[in-house]
Amino acid sequence: RIEFMMRDAGLALVLTQQGFAERLGGGVGDGPLEGPGPRYMYVDAFEPATPVAVSSPASSAALSFAPSFAPSFAPTSAGDLAYMLYTSGSTGRPKGVMIEHGAVVNFLRSMHVEPGINAHDRLVSVTTMSFDIFGLELWGPLTAGGTVVLASRATAVDGGALSALLDQEQATILQATPATWRVLLESGWPGRPGLKMLCGGEALPRDLAARLLATGGELWNMYGPTETTIWSTLSRIRDAGEPITIGRPIAETAIVVLEPHGTPAPPGVAGELCIGGAGVARGYHARPDLTAEKFVVLSFGRSSPQRFYRTGDLARLRGDGRLEFIGRRDHQVKVRGFRIELGEV
Ligand code: AMP
């Protein structure tokens, strides 16, 4: 899978550790490498005050960092690519979602307002960087003048250690999937008063919402697919006795619930959740077929045509304007927040 993604993305440079690179060195796969193939930079070979070693596993020649990889800061515009992130593909081939700078900036500015991130915040980051929601954990606080504390992988999966870290670092925000929130609660975590708890990646169960609210923190249900930049709707959950909704769209985001024949569903009626606006991805890298299938131009009434991403999620719009997540229309599943197409397995 990793070799496929490396080939598909046409990488110039791979940042990794020596032990991992040895496992990738063979480069065997189902197609030829495009271009000259990537170079490798080993973070564990880095020693402060010495040049960073950059080398390819295929050759033992180490290059010094400066000549070939000196960063050049070309002016960036909103339509430039910020990142590409692979999600599980139903035909077994992961697909690279292309997200532009403008989408990320819009997302971050919206998050600064709601759920609210500011210069006094200290966010403890527990999410792997291969999951797009890590983008909130890293850039959310940094672009607001706040602080990010990176939890180690060992701490992120150990409720007791994570609980201690939250106190030690005086955390004000923690974002996690329902699975990680449960791990924390199971360790006997008493909660942190005032902690902003962001939960997303899969449906927030009512019992978990009740337990989290009982800790005295502020609870938010975050919803969104990788294809529309991290989160697209959110909801402050105040009472676990009320319906748990995914709330309303974030800034510059349009939502429509479509019935099977392509017309907007009236409030209360279930349909496919489609997302338009500033967060919509450029498409899937080198997959025009799939891009055309999932990213569609829709127009309703007098509004001008707009690009929407068809999420494959079933939802219904409530009378109060909040969205209720119902489930999937296909066989995609979530395992501890990871999105998996059963076809890929
Ligand atoms: P990913 O692209 O990995 O972020 O996965 C996106 C999918 O996760 C969505 O299309 C939903 O099926 C599911 N999902 C994410 N957040 C939520 C949430 N708060 N409630 C219900 N489902 C969610």
Please give the structural blueprint.
Elements: H1 2-9, E1 13-16, H2 18-24, E2 39-42, E3 53-55, E4 62-64, H3 65-69, E5 81-87, E6 95-100, H4 101-116, E7 122-125, H5 134-142, E8 147-150, H6 153-156, H7 159-168, E9 173-176, H8 178-186, E10 196-200, H9 206-213, E11 218-223, E12 233-237, E13 248-249, E14 253-258, E15 270-277, E16 283-284, H10 288-294, E17 295-298, E18 306-317, E19 323-328, E20 332-335, E21 338-341
Parallel strand pairs: 1-2, 7-8, 7-9, 9-10, 10-11
Antiparallel strand pairs: 2-3, 3-4, 5-6, 6-16, 11-12, 12-13, 14-15, 15-18, 17-18, 18-19, 20-21
Helix pairs in contact: 4-5, 7-8
Bound molecules: adenosine monophosphate.
Adenosine monophosphate is lined by residues 87, 132, 200-204, 221-223, 225-226, 246, 311, 313, 325, 328, 334, 339.
Description:
The structure is a single chain. Mean pLDDT is about 90; it is low at about 25-35 and about 50-70. The protein has about 350 residues and is α+β, with helices and mostly antiparallel strands. It contains ten helices and 21 strands. Helix 4 packs across helix 5 (about 135-140) and helix 7 (about 160-170) crosses helix 8 (about 180-185). The chain has a seven-stranded mixed sheet, with helices on both faces. The protein binds adenosine monophosphate. Adenosine monophosphate (AMP) binds near residues 87, 132, 201, 202 and 204.
